């Protein structure tokens, strides 16, 4: 089994190399040709020609966390659905019903979110 | 066909003869990886040209036509230009993370291809949980965007990254639920088996037995979520050049920018390839097997399906105006997730009845 | 080969875990934690738990750590000030850690755990961990499975109760209403008799329109 995963590992390593190679090429070519000429104006953060007023890292609306938390919960639901979906043909009616109960409980949560307006983006 | 299979195994046999079994396995894997990544890179380069040409035609323009015949050398020249451009490191940025961002975008876009099948046996790694692997690897793509947006220390980049994160995770859910439907009917996570399963059934291996028809709503959800995952039009609020001037990519130049660009196009091809494998029967022919030549499964069918879906990506870009952010979130959470859930329950119930077409 | 990979991944895991606690920048710490989860998944893969390994990447790397990164990136916390008391609290924290380590060692080295004799069973050819899990989880472990659903439900409700605030006086559009709108709601087409004022013909010539 592990043998079939070895190419995946190799692919990850090569993917990492490809992820770095273009930047390294660009940097080396830039150094050789001397195109890398930093100056303070060029290196300042882009802000439509102004100097940046303050640090760009600011507090954000709590709504983004809510989306992320709900995402985790639903992602877990997907993870629970995967083994069920794979064996559904062999599970029979009991296995099917068991998942329907699971989904029903979570749909309660989904309806609650919906009614509370947590899914609104105002 | 048999001779072709044997011919393709020839390098493996030669390597085994001269290098021993272990090294030959490594060499063979490397060769397969090169055979996937090489054409992929070519595909990415020419997809950029195809995009400009096709959108040009749709807008009654010519598109690039100066470099080489029909502008065919344009991607090469673009590449040279990007290599020669200066790489700027903003002084306010966290240098290490600033360069980690583009790499983290690129790695998942490449690594996902490890399990994509092109034809029976033509896959780098034929693993049991291929579909889950794709889901896991593509969910890592978001890190590159968040890291580059934060490390740039620019307001536009940060805004773009936060938008991207919320958008991508919302649509990842819809995509995950859509994939559950495919797993249910095929009873497997192995992508080759998922394609083979679509060749069986009462319709006898034509377009009628593909997942496309019984899972039509899931296909639409998957493909539209794919548009949103790759931040393509009409869901490109992440770049939104008229409001946040390219978002998380704004501080990048030259090859660092090119990496975001390459990864976006590689992801487009990946989404198309996955949609073709999961819903459109991969290499299976749309005609019944009884028709000679046309009815036979062939790698070219796979190419044709992927090419058509890629054309749809470009077509949508030329057709639809950009979604507003609240509409976009509403579509993901309030339309796609309920639709997929209902369809999963329906298909599941259908499979419990004697009328199930997936025995 | 497997052993060499195990030591490689284990070394990466330990180093990344150390970076999580020692990194000055919280974003670096969170990213080190991502690396931790990823290498832990690799280790699980080495003991042939393919479904669990990839689920770990899918859930912890793909979902949980995104939230962590959100939090450390968007909360404007001054982490330097949080760090100040480090050496003052170190003795207490160190004692707690030492006790935990001792307890774990006691359990793991005891006769009952019998770790030295334990061997991972070799999965049979064609064994599919996702299918094996599925066959057990939804039938034999019905009740724990439903409890998981309840747990998720509680999580959802708690998240909304804690973070959701209905903002007053915001002006926003409801896309559902916008989509549902019909032409008849916006434009009223009135049927009326054509009226012809006496000077109508001279007026049209001034507009310069040609049909």
TrEMBL record, chain A:
It is found in: Cell membrane; Membrane. Its EC number is 7.1.1.-. Pfam families: Oxidored_q4. GO terms for molecular function: NADH dehydrogenase (quinone) (non-electrogenic) activity; NADH dehydrogenase (ubiquinone) activity; quinone binding. InterPro entries: NAD(P)H_OxRDtase_bac/plastid, NADH_UbQ/plastoQ_OxRdtase_su3, NDAH_ubi_oxred_su3_sf. The chain crosses the membrane at residues 6-29, 64-86, 92-112. GO terms for cellular component: NADH dehydrogenase complex; plasma membrane. It is a multi-pass membrane protein. Its main location: membrane. It catalyses: a quinone + NADH + 5 H(+)(in) = a quinol + NAD(+) + 4 H(+)(out). It comes from the Bacteria. Keywords: Cell membrane, Membrane, NAD, Quinone, Translocase, Transmembrane, Transmembrane helix, Transport, Ubiquinone. PANTHER family: NADH-UBIQUINONE OXIDOREDUCTASE CHAIN 3 (PTHR11058). Belongs to the complex I subunit 3 family. NDH-1 is composed of 14 different subunits. Subunits NuoA, H, J, K, L, M, N constitute the membrane sector of the complex. NDH-1 shuttles electrons from NADH, via FMN and iron-sulfur (Fe-S) centers, to quinones in the respiratory chain. The immediate electron acceptor for the enzyme in this species is believed to be ubiquinone. Couples the redox reaction to proton translocation (for every two electrons transferred, four hydrogen ions are translocated across the cytoplasmic membrane), and thus conserves the redox energy in a proton gradient. This is NADH-quinone oxidoreductase subunit A.
TrEMBL record, chain B:
Keywords: Cell membrane, Membrane, NAD, Quinone, Translocase, Transmembrane, Transmembrane helix, Ubiquinone. Its EC number is 7.1.1.-. The keyword Transmembrane helix applies. The chain crosses the membrane at residues 25-49, 97-119, 131-152, 164-187, 207-225, 265-287, 299-319, 331-351. InterPro entries: NADH_UbQ_OxRdtase_su1/FPO, NADH_UbQ_OxRdtase_su1_CS. It catalyses: a quinone + NADH + 5 H(+)(in) = a quinol + NAD(+) + 4 H(+)(out). It comes from the Bacteria. It is found in: Cell membrane; Membrane. It is a multi-pass membrane protein. One of its GO terms (cellular component) is plasma membrane. GO terms for molecular function: NADH dehydrogenase activity; oxidoreductase activity, acting on NAD(P)H, quinone or similar compound as acceptor; quinone binding. One of its GO terms (biological process) is aerobic respiration. NDH-1 shuttles electrons from NADH, via FMN and iron-sulfur (Fe-S) centers, to quinones in the respiratory chain. The immediate electron acceptor for the enzyme in this species is believed to be ubiquinone. Couples the redox reaction to proton translocation (for every two electrons transferred, four hydrogen ions are translocated across the cytoplasmic membrane), and thus conserves the redox energy in a proton gradient. This subunit may bind ubiquinone. NDH-1 is composed of 14 different subunits. Subunits NuoA, H, J, K, L, M, N constitute the membrane sector of the complex. Belongs to the complex I subunit 1 family. This is NADH-quinone oxidoreductase subunit H.
UniProtKB/TrEMBL annotation, chain C:
The keyword tRNA processing does not apply. It is found in: Cell membrane. Its EC number is 7.1.1.-. One of its GO terms (molecular function) is NADH dehydrogenase (ubiquinone) activity. InterPro entries: NADH_UbQ/plastoQ_OxRdtase_su6, Nuo/plastoQ_OxRdtase_6_NuoJ. It is an enzyme of class 7 (translocase). It catalyses: a quinone + NADH + 5 H(+)(in) = a quinol + NAD(+) + 4 H(+)(out). The keyword Transmembrane applies. Its main location: membrane. It comes from the Bacteria. It is a multi-pass membrane protein. Keywords: Cell membrane, Membrane, NAD, Quinone, Transmembrane, Transmembrane helix. Pfam families: Oxidored_q3 (PF00499). The chain crosses the membrane at residues 6-22, 29-47, 53-75, 87-108, 141-162. One of its GO terms (cellular component) is plasma membrane. Belongs to the complex I subunit 6 family. NCBIfam families: PRK06638.1-4 (NF005164). This is NADH-quinone oxidoreductase subunit J.
